[in-house]
Known about the structure:
By secondary structure, this protein is an alpha+beta fold. The protein has 2 domains: 4-119, D-amino Acid Aminotransferase, Chain A, domain 1 (2-Layer Sandwich), CATH 3.30.470; 125-284, Alpha-Beta Barrel (D-amino Acid Aminotransferase, Chain A, domain 2), CATH 3.20.10.10. Helix content is 30%, strand content 28%. It has 8 helices and 15 strands. The chain has helices at residues 24-28, 46-59, 68-82, 125-130, 153-164, 209-220, 232-236, 268-284, and strands spanning 4-7, 10-13, 31-39, 42-43, 86-94, 112-119, 132-138, 169-173, 179-182, 186-190, 196-198, 225-227, 240-245, 249-256, 259-260. Strands 7, 8, 9, 10, 11, 12, 13, 14 and 15 form a 9-stranded mixed sheet that branches. It has a 6-stranded antiparallel sheet with strand order 2-1-6-5-3-4. Helix 6 packs across helix 8. The chain is globular, with a radius of gyration of 19 Å. Bound molecules: N-(5'-phosphopyridoxyl)-D-alanine.
Amino acid sequence: xxxxxxxxxxxxxxxxxxxxxxxxxxxxxxxxxxxxxxxxxxxxxxxxxxxxxxxxxxxxxxxxxxxxxxxxxxxxxxxxxxxxxxxxxxxxxxxxxxxxxxxxxxxxxxxxxxxxxxxxxxxxxxxxxxxxxxxxxxxxxxxxxxxxxxxxxxxxxxxxxxxxxxxxxxxxxxxxxxxxxxxxxxxxxxxxxxxxxxxxxxxxxxxxxxxxxxxxxxxxxxxxxxxxxxxxxxxxxxxxxxxxxxxxxxxxxxxxxxxxxxxxxxxxxxxxxxxxxxxxxxxxxx
Length: 286
Ligand code: PDD
């Protein structure tokens, strides 16, 4: 089945879909994006993703290329045309095409919109049964990590460092020794009292939609959630740890650098949280 991409108002075969060489997304990473999980045509927490997209754009003074309702139609139509039941839809909006010059084009140009969608394979059983390892890396990113910008080079380097050491993710650590987040996931620990601990939402991390949803689901179950910074040292001696994202859902972490957490197996609370999130997705999509 051939894939279809949406580019600036046109649906094209994926291999033939292109953007201009002077798109500011390409030249300056001057743009933002979202990745949304899809289940049977339903966009999981689509409204929250749309709100975050609008916020990212407004922080960069880029206009929405169309209304949220119209964009939602484009997202769903791109999903439909790609014919899969479980996957993701990717949306990227850049400031548009202009002669290369750092300041914003004046007058403004039309923002460029790209949407792709594809099926995603199920999470390997090994990831859930055995958990994953993370490495720590200094957080070398800018001070606006709350914007879901396509400037991802430090994230790419962090993630590659993890992969080259056999890890799944890199937990980035700020100048005070506190974990910010992973290269493409939010970071969590569970302390000895069974409380979930995750960094509060501010400029140092992305306000993850999975994070936000999981906080709501966990609180509804009566679990304690502490939104506070935690240090790498605290994480290494935590009872359990896990990471969250649109593509990883809730993934158990069993090793941080050389420190093996607890008995080295995914924690029971983490696995319960994963189930809670998977059930939430299934319910949303029925
Ligand atoms: N990444 N932190 C960072 C830096 C991220 O890039 C992401 C998402 C998250 C988790 O956010 P959410 O729960 O909304 O997916 C946290 C996406 C999936 C990506 O870049 O592919």
